[in-house]
């Protein structure tokens, strides 16, 4: 049991979990920092700025549904930071539902979003609970920007681009490789259509002279969020790092996977991908620098005779993610979400509210162009 603290951070010993704790402290939200290794959790929490003023406890737990449900019992919100979510998400979301908790996570794997929407969304809605995966920089911000565009433009088609500069964490690297094996979809007339595999896309990014290299990268959450939208019928999402050399390597890995690894049994595929991910990420990256780790989201919206573009210039994608988690958790403690069941953070808490909170912390600012 979480000692009746309203929020549980699962995976608190990780890079993102530590940042979530930092922002929960700023919101004055009591929390339980949970994971499998108590010593690591305690060490990580000891280095959170201002932790001496936070109301929290550190708890070790196993990863089974029963163990997690027992931990979550008495809490209101679970912030899951343990990816890849296509592997680790099912047990955590089931435990959250069993314990009667709202569920948030930081994953952006489209395959996981589709599973939550189809399998877990109705069950959470029946209980009046929210299931909001991908409450994170990598899609939540652009989803809010889409809603901002819808306020003034008669559009039915959007393309989104999400890119950041920085060193991916261990969990992000594992996820980048894990999604290579999954099928990626875009939305065409409210129907899923498969992206061609191992395909790279040159993109023009506002604020940069050189073109960047982007990938469909598992498909992104936006097509899932807008699958049944009454106005938006077509969605294509791209993304990547603002480092062409790194993206060239990821694109080459995707091609190699299709040629050499996809023919193998699924278990062998997963093993090979994990080995490859471990080989390229050796440890925890340094704390983000606002002058270096910049981010950008671009939303281009088109209707029959209308057009709109929203560009969100930002910095520090992991801090944005942690802030969104803390903002969402704080809201869920004090009020019901605007939508229960499966929903994006923009649907659950308001798109303008999301954009305002990242702007108020100096992490991002949206600009609309007509």
Rough shape?
globular
Query: How many domain regions?
Result: 2
Helix and strand composition category: alpha/beta
Name the strands of the widest sheet in spatial order: 3-2-1-4-5-6-15
Q: Spell the H/E element sequence.
A: EHEHEHEHEHEHEHEEEEHEHHEEHEHHE
Q: What CATH architecture of the largest domain do you see?
A: 2-Layer Sandwich
What portion of residues belong to β-strands?
15-25%
CATH fold category name of the largest domain:
Dihydrodipicolinate Reductase, domain 2
Helix content: 40-55%
Poorly predicted sequence stretches spanning 5 or more consecutive residues:
none
In total, how many beta strands? 16
Using only C-alpha atoms, the radius of gyration works out to 19 Å
- Alpha-carbon distance between the two ends: 52 Å
The main β sheet shows up as: 7 strands, parallel
Number of helices: 13
CATH homologous superfamily grouping of the largest domain: Dihydrodipicolinate Reductase, domain 2
Question: Mind telling me the CATH class of the largest domain?
Answer: Alpha Beta
Mean pLDDT: 95
Task: Summarize it.
The chain is built from 13 helices and 16 strands. It is an alpha/beta fold and 370 residues long.
């Amino acid at each position: 049991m979480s000692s009746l603290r309203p929020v549980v951070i699962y995976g608190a010993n990780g890079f993102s979990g530590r940042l979530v704790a930092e922002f929960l402290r700023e919101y004055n939200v009591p929390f339980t920092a949970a994971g499998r290794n108590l010593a690591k959790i305690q060490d990580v929490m000891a280095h959170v700025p201002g932790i001496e003023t936070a109301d929290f406890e550190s708890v070790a737990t196993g990863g089974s549904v029963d163990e997690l449900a027992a931990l979550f019992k008495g809490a209101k919100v679970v912030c899951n930071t343990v990816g890849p979510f296509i592997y680790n998400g099912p047990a955590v979301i089931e435990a959250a539902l069993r314990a009667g908790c709202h569920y948030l996570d930081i994953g952006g794997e489209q395959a996981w979003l589709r599973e939550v929407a189809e399998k877990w969304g109705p069950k959470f809605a029946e209980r009046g609970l929210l299931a909001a995966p991908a409450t994170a920089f990598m899609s939540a911000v652009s989803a809010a920007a889409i809603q901002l565009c819808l306020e003034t433009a008669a559009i039915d088609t959007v393309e989104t681009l999400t890119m950041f500069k920085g060193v991916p964490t261990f969990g992000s690297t594992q996820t980048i490789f894990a999604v290579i094996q999954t099928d990626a979809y875009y939305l065409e007339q409210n129907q899923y259509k498969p992206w061609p595999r191992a395909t790279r896309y040159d993109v023009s990014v506002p604020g940069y002279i050189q073109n960047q290299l982007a990938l469909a990268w598992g498909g992104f959450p936006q097509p899932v969020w807008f699958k049944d939208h009454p106005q938006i019928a077509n969605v294509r999402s791209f993304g990547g790092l603002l480092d062409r050399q790194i993206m060239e390597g990821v694109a080459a890995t995707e091609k190699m996977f299709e040629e050499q690894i996809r023919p193998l049994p699924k278990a062998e595929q997963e093993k090979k991908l994990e080995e490859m991910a471990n080989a390229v990420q050796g440890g925890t990256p340094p704390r983000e620098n606002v002058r270096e780790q910049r981010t950008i989201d671009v939303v281009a919206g088109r209707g029959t005779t209308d057009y709109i573009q929203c560009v969100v210039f930002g910095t520090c994608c992991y801090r944005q993610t942690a802030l969104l988690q803390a903002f969402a958790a704080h809201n869920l403690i004090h009020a019901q979400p605007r939508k229960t069941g499966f929903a994006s953070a923009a649907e659950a808490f308001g798109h303008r509210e999301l954009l305002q909170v990242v702007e108020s912390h100096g992490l991002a600012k949206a600009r609309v162009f007509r």
